[in-house]
Amino acid sequence: MSFVVGLICCAALFAAFILGGGNPALLLDGRSALLVVGGMAALGCMGLPGGMLRDRLGAAVLAMRRTESKKLEEELFSLARLAREKGLIALEDAEPRVSDALVREGLLLISGGASPETVRAVLEKQADCQKAREHAAQELFERMAYLAIGVGGAGTLLKTVLMLHRYAGPQTLAPGIAAALLPVAYGALAAYVVMLPLAARVRAGAERQEIQRQAAIEGILAVQAGEPMFVVQERLRTILHPIVKQARRAS
Fold first, then answer.
1. Cα 235 from Cα 170, distance rounded (Å)
2. Contacts of 95 (CB under 8 A, 6+ apart)
3. What are the subcellular locations of this protein (predicted)?
4. Which one, of 205, 238, 249, lies nearest residue 73 by Cα?
5. Whole-angstrom Cα distance, residue 154 to residue 150?
6. Which of 47, 50, 75, 77 stands the most exposed, by the fewest C-beta atoms within 10 Å?
7. Does residue 84 contact residue 65 with C-beta atoms inside 8 Å?
8. Are 79 and 52 spatial neighbours (Cβ–Cβ below 8 Å)?
């Protein structure tokens, strides 16, 4: 939501700046916009196989989704209570009702008789792999920002060359230079208003997801160890405190 609000504010500021300086239609050039957006997307696709591109975009979407820390706490408390009352064997039936993928994997490992060391190793490996995918998604948007600037600069050079070939006197020079500068302006806008803020959002979301994964791992290990409810609660709140604090501020 904050990304959309920020984007609207940027658009409003730019609109006010443009309207105060003359005719905004002079800043519209469909070919330049198509060159920047299409060139940025095409070069981004050229640098990655299709499967990797889809994986990174999917990781970006997952990283930016809202973390359900309260729901994770409730599920782990319920599992801890179930394990203490009916034993670890009862956790197998609870696995389909759990929403967190890492907790579900932990339950499957526990039901299969895996040791706590094995459970921790497997879950931490999965968490590290997801963290690496999220970092790659962040780098994708940063690379797209650099590509947008590069394509915009190349477009300005090409339009300058074409303008000089069509030079018909001093009266055509200023409008030609102004039009030639539009691609680099579009590239800068695409990079600094869209792509780099998206990269920052992915990074912030990845940090929240990493905290969520740490809580899931510690929680499932506490469940396996049969720790008392208050111990499970304290372990989770120690890890999830930043997320819970942010959620309370947002509400």
1. 74
2. 104, 107, 108, 111
3. Cell membrane; Membrane
4. 238
5. 6
6. 50
7. no
8. no
**H, E, C per residue of the chain:** CHHHHHHHHHHHHHHHHHHCCCCHHHHCCHHHHHHHHHHHHHHHHHCCCHHHHHHHHHHHHHHHCCCCHHHHHHHHHHHHHHHHHHCHHHHHHHHHHCCCHHHHHHHHHHHCCCCHHHHHHHHHHHHHHHHHHHHHHHHHHHHHHHHHHHHHHHHHHHHHHHHHHCCCCHHHHHHHHHHHCHHHHHHHHHHHHHHHHHHHHHHHHHHHHHHHHHHHHHHHHHHHHCCCHHHHHHHHHHHHHHHHHHHHHHC
> Look-up: residue for tokens 């009862």?
90
Q: Which amino acid is at 149?
A: I
Q: Which long-range contacts (CB under 8 A, 24 or more apart) does 2-11 make?
A: 3/197, 3/198, 3/201, 6/197, 7/193, 7/194, 7/197, 10/193
* CA nearest neighbour of 134 among 67, 89, 77, 81: 67
- Global confidence as pTM: 0.80
**Residue ranges of domains in the chain:** 30-250
Cα angle at 60 between 57 and 65, to 5 degrees?
130
